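To the team - LPXRUNBV complex, inputs and output below.
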Amino acid sequence: MIQQIYPSVMHPFRYELNKDMHFAAAHYVPSESAGACSNVHGHTYFLNVTVAGNELDETGFLVNFSQIKKLIHDRFDHTMLNDHSSLFSDEDPSRFPTTENVARIVCELIQAYLDRSANKAKCVQIFLRETPTSYVVYRPYAGGNYGE
Ligand SMILES: Nc1nc2c(c(=O)[nH]1)N=C([C@H](O)[C@H](O)COP(=O)(O)OP(=O)(O)OP(=O)(O)O)CN2
Ligand SMILES: [Zn+2]
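Output:
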């Protein structure tokens, strides 16, 4: 079982849910300045997704926990991140599979799914741990504008 304390995110919504998961994936960071990380290596990524909103759907869910897992775990588990060419690139640093970029892209994938639902929930935080000593927190609405 994954049990961890996460940083909390400030937001104006009534409901907040969190989904934990892990996935095993390989990657390399295609830059000389990444040192050893430019070689192919693997991680068991630990991911915490925070979704918030004011309205529930017809099932009484903000979003189905299992749908969040399906979107990310099914896509990335036991894959080579760099091979996901629609998401990552060896040419564009904003698309290198660094922890920062993976966190943002995971958020974008979840938000694209949420945008297709009538209750319009928001992915407000991604916590992505790459190693026991390294993690990133991504907050898409850090400026406070939730597009309401
Ligand atoms: N800002 C970032 N820095 C680094 C990233 C990254 O994605 N963003 N990635 C790496 C490597 O891919 C590596 O997987 C993780 O590096 P590091 O935390 O240094 O790994 P260690 O387990 O060796 O850490 P120790 O605490 O020294 O044991 C590097 N940097
Ligand atoms: Zn790595």
